[in-house]
C-alpha cells in the first residue's frame, strides 16, 4: 500500500467528488508533500490507478480554465472498503512506515472512535513488546562481535520506539476524552 494512494482515496472520500487539482490542493494544505512525499504527478497517477482498480469512478468532467477538462471522481463502495482497510492497517501495525502511519492519522476521522481506539491499543501493545528486545540489544551488540559503535543503532531504535509508545499513548488519551470529530 502506498501512502499516496491512501491519501488520494481519502481526500476523494472526504470531498464526495473531486478532480485531481482539488485533491492536490487539499494534500498541499496538509503539507503531505513533506511527510508523505506526495508529488503532483503521483496524485494524478494514483487517481488513474484507483479508477482502473474500480476504487473510484468518473462522474464527468469540468472545464479546466486554461488547461484541459478535469475528470471528476467519486469513491466506489469497493474504494470505501479498501480505504478503511488501509487506514486500519496503517494505524494497527507497529511497523508501519512513517508515511503510512502519517496518512492513517491524517484520515483517522473516517473511522468510528471505538475502532480507532482498538487499533491504536493493538499498535501500542506491539510497540511495548519491542522495548525489552531493544534494551537488550543496546548492551549486547559488543558481546555479539559487532563493533561497539554499532550499538548506537540499537539506542536509536530504542529511543524511536519509546517515542512512539509515548505518542500513541497520548493519542489514545485524547481519543478516549472525545477529542477530534470521528464518524461516531
From TrEMBL:
InterPro entries: Metal_resp_DNA-bind_regulator (IPR052509), Tscrpt_reg_PadR_N (IPR005149), WH-like_DNA-bd_sf (IPR036388), WH_DNA-bd_sf (IPR036390). Signal peptide: none annotated. It comes from the Bacteria. Residues 8-82 form the Transcription regulator PadR N-terminal domain. SUPFAM superfamilies: Winged helix' DNA-binding domain (SSF46785). Transmembrane segments: none annotated. Gene3D superfamilies: Winged helix-like DNA-binding domain superfamily/Winged helix DNA-binding domain. Pfam families: PadR. PANTHER family: PADR-FAMILY TRANSCRIPTIONAL REGULATOR (PTHR33169), TRANSCRIPTIONAL REGULATOR RV3488 (PTHR33169:SF14). This is PadR family transcriptional regulator. The lineage of its organism: Bacteria, Bacillati, Actinomycetota, Actinomycetes, Pseudonocardiales.
Amino acid at each position: 500500500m502506498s501512502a499516496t494512494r491512501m491519501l488520494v482515496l481519502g481526500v476523494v472520500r472526504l470531498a464526495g467528488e473531486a478532480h485531481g487539482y482539488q485533491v492536490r490542493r487539499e494534500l498541499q494544505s496538509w503539507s503531505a508533500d513533506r511527510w508523505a512525499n506526495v508529488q503532483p504527478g503521483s496524485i494524478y497517477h494514483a487517481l488513474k490507478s484507483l479508477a482502473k482498480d474500480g476504487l473510484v469512478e468518473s462522474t464527468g468532467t469540468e472545464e479546466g480554465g486554461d488547461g484541459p477538462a478535469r475528470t471528476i471522481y467519486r469513491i466506489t463502495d469497493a474504494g470505501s472498503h479498501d480505504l478503511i482497510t488501509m487506514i486500519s492497517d496503517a494505524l494497527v501495525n507497529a511497523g508501519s512506515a512513517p508515511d503510512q502511519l502519517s496518512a492513517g492519522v491524517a484520515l483517522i476521522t473516517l473511522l468510528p472512535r471505538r475502532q480507532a481506539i482498538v487499533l491504536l491499543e493493538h499498535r501500542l501493545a506491539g510497540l511495548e513488546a519491542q522495548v525489552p528486545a531493544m534494551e537488550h540489544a543496546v548492551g549486547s551488540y559488543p558481546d555479539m562481535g559487532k563493533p561497539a559503535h554499532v550499538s548506537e543503532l540499537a539506542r536509536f531504535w530504542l529511543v524511536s520506539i519509546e517515542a512512539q509508545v509515548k505518542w500513541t499513548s497520548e493519542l489514545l488519551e485524547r481519543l478516549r476524552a472525545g477529542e477530534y470529530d470521528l464518524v461516531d
